[in-house]
Specification:
single chain; 434 residues; alpha/beta; 24-stranded mixed β-sheet; 29% helix; Adhesin domain-containing protein; signal
């Protein structure tokens, strides 16, 4: 009895394992690299984790899981899923996230009959019988163009000159020119009456319209493939997880779309995010550039960063030593500015929870925005230029004001000897200083 139970359990386990094998596909690559190598990521719809280590090697592991309508579709999606990791000792490039276009066309199951034809076939009354074109001029029918090749071989150029002279004499002694002119006039009249020119124009137009229809079908097919792939992603039927291990001094170049990137410590990153997120505990180096659109950035410690945000509502920076920030229609929260920050923002919210007493320069320019800053308790030169803005100061900071029309400036009564400076320009904004 126990033997039967063990067999049943083994069969169930085997069946379950087979089902999982049909839904999951693994990729693994490894590259030996030199110091200061570069890694390029071009990835869509994936969860990416990057770890650093002391080895001169880049390891890439990926797992793609599919849970669609049937095992057959799962298997075909995995077979046609594009994942690529290529490289050498200086450069490694990783691409992932697309289904091959050939399989995508089958996956879309597009019905060509559903495509709306925007143009109708050209129809009209039956064409009248076409009149015959005029015959060639009679003079041409009398020309003797028989060339005697044997005589040419024996006489050579002398025969050729004699033959040419006979042709010239025929045209000089005939009414060829008059007949040719009359024939041309008759031909032109017959061409116009035959409607041949209109027929060619109609045929050309129909060919162009047929080509347009084919282009419409191709574009609709591409849209169907994209929509089907997005539906599969949104319903979590296709999941991609990627683990990458890189040396500490690797330059990381990232292009993400609809993906999540987690990296513990990284030295110099150039990232472009679209509908994605980036989470890091420590960002070191002086060449860090992040451009985020409809995305989320969360970094605990930053040595130096050039950050551009567009339509990104949830962004957090922890302790920042040097920062250049350009924010449009985005919200940013900064835990602490240690040294230097140049910030420009419009149509968003800015929060600075703390400023180190050892800071050197903070320059903020706002337009149609709201900012909340916790000021440091140390001497520094303070200057605010506020135009059509609301200015709320809730500290013991001593300042003087001057007003010209709707512009108000706030600054120290006397310039201090310190090099520390906090400059703020606010247009049509709300500024809260605590």
């Amino acid at each position: 009895m126990k033997t039967i139970q063990i067999i049943k359990f083994s069969l169930c386990f085997l069946i379950g394992f087979t089902a999982i094998a049909q839904k999951t596909k693994h990729f693994k690559e490894s590259f030996k690299v030199t110091d200061n190598a570069e890694v390029f990521l071009n990835i869509n719809n994936a969860e990416i984790t990057i770890e650093t280590w002391n080895k001169n090697r880049v390891d890439v592991e990926a797992e793609v899981t599919v849970n669609s309508e049937s095992d057959e579709i799962n298997q075909k999606i995995l077979e046609n899923f594009n994942f690529e990791a290529l490289g050498n000792s200086k450069k490694v490039e990783i691409k992932s996230g697309n289904i091959s276009s050939k399989f995508g066309r089958r996956l879309a199951r597009l019905n060509p009959d559903k495509i709306e034809i925007l143009t109708e076939d050209i129809k009209g009354p039956p064409s009248p019988p076409k009149p015959p074109l005029p015959p060639l001029p009679p003079s041409l029918e009398e020309i003797n163009l028989d060339f005697d090749i044997n005589q040419f071989n024996s006489e050579g150029k002398a025969y050729l000159k004699k033959f040419q002279d006979s042709i010239k004499a025929f045209f000089n002694n005939s009414d060829y020119k008059k007949e040719m002119k009359a024939w041309q006039e008759g031909f032109a009249k017959g061409w116009n009456e035959s409607g041949m020119e209109d027929s060619i124009r109609v045929i050309t137009y129909k060919i162009k319209e047929d080509l347009k229809k084919e282009d419409l079908k191709k574009e609709e097919l591409k849209r169907q493939v994209r929509r089907r792939a997005i539906r599969l992603r949104k319903s979590h039927k296709i999941k991609t997880k990627i683990l990458i291990k890189i040396p500490k001094n690797t330059q990381l170049n990232v292009n993400l779309k609809r993906s999540q990137l987690k990296v513990a410590n990284i030295n110099n990153i150039n990232a472009r995010l679209n509908y994605s997120s980036l989470q890091s505990s420590n960002l070191t180096g002086h060449n860090n550039v992040i451009t985020a659109k409809h995305s989320k950035v969360n970094i605990d410690e930053v040595e130096s960063l050039n950050l551009s945000l567009l339509y990104s509502k949830k962004n957090r920076l922890g302790e920042v030593k040097r920062l250049i920030l350009n924010s449009k229609t985005s919200n940013v929260s900064i835990d602490k500015i240690l040294n230097e920050a140049i910030i420009e923002g419009s149509f968003g919210n800015l929060m600075v929870k703390s400023i180190s007493e050892d800071f050197s320069l903070i320059d903020i320019s706002l337009k149609n925005s709201e900012a909340n800053l916790k000021l440091p308790e140390v001497d520094y030169n303070f200057y605010v230029n506020s135009k059509s803005s609301q200015f709320n100061l809730k500290t013991e900071l001593d300042f003087k004001t001057s007003k010209v029309f709707d512009a108000v400036t706030y600054q120290n009564p006397e310039r201090l000897s310190t090099t520390k400076a906090l400059n703020i320009k606010a247009n049509y904004s709300t500024l809260n200083l605590n």
